[in-house]
Amino acid sequence: MTTPVIDGWFTVDDGTAHLLGTRCADCRTVHFPPRTGPCRNPHCDGETLVQVRLPRRGTVWSYTNACYPPPAPFVAADPYEPVTLAAVELAGEGIVVLGQVKGLTVDDLHVGMELELIASPLADGPLVWMWSAPGTGDTNGADHTAKAGTGATRAPGTSAAPERRGEGVA
Ligand SMILES: [Zn+2]
Questions:
Q1: Mean pLDDT, residues 12-29 taken together
Q2: pLDDT, tens digit, for every residue of 44-81?
């Protein structure tokens, strides 16, 4: 049984993963991770943030791999296998979200290519969001459970890079 590693940052319904963000009711700026309180847009006085499901596809903004295990509290599988990480700009939203890439290496990636959100378990069991090639992320409960332990499911997928491109200094 797998459960989301962070409550409230993403959801999986009928096998389809969605990141959860908040959208300002005044200026429409999207925040990820979801937040409460005033809008982060420095040019907006809005204080009403509404939870939204973020687009499941985006384009690669940058990518790398991690050839050594991240420090605790990350639970790395032993033996450790390098993982691929990508910062993906969500379609139409102008925000970039970092995640592990499942099933692809840095040799497979290039800036601008499209990736799709999935949910997959880390080595120690908790479910995290990951990026994958479009069309391969048609996950359901049995599917991503079955893929646990394939060696391609461990990474700091809990990291998030919520910076907005083009946003001014805070
Ligand atoms: Zn706003």
A1: 94
A2: 999 999 999 999 999 999 999 999 988 887 777 788 88
Distance 71 CA to ligand 1 centre (A): 36
Q: Let me know the angle formed at the C-alpha of 105 by 130 and 85, rounded to the nearest 5 degrees.
A: 40
Q: How far is the CA of 42 from the centre of ligand 1 (A)?
A: 8
Helix/strand/coil for 146:
helix
Query: 76 CA distance to ligand 1 centroid (A)?
Result: 39
Residues, CB-to-ion distance under 5 Å, ligand 1: 24, 26-27, 29, 39, 41, 44, 46
Q: Which of 35-39, 59-63, 93-97, 165-169 has the lowest mean pLDDT?
A: 165-169
Contacts of 44 by beta carbon, 8 Å cutoff, 6+ apart: 24, 26, 27, 29
CA–CA distance, 37 with 62 (Å, rounded to integer): 30
Distance (Å) from CA 30 to ligand 1 centroid = 8
First to last CA, the chain: 41
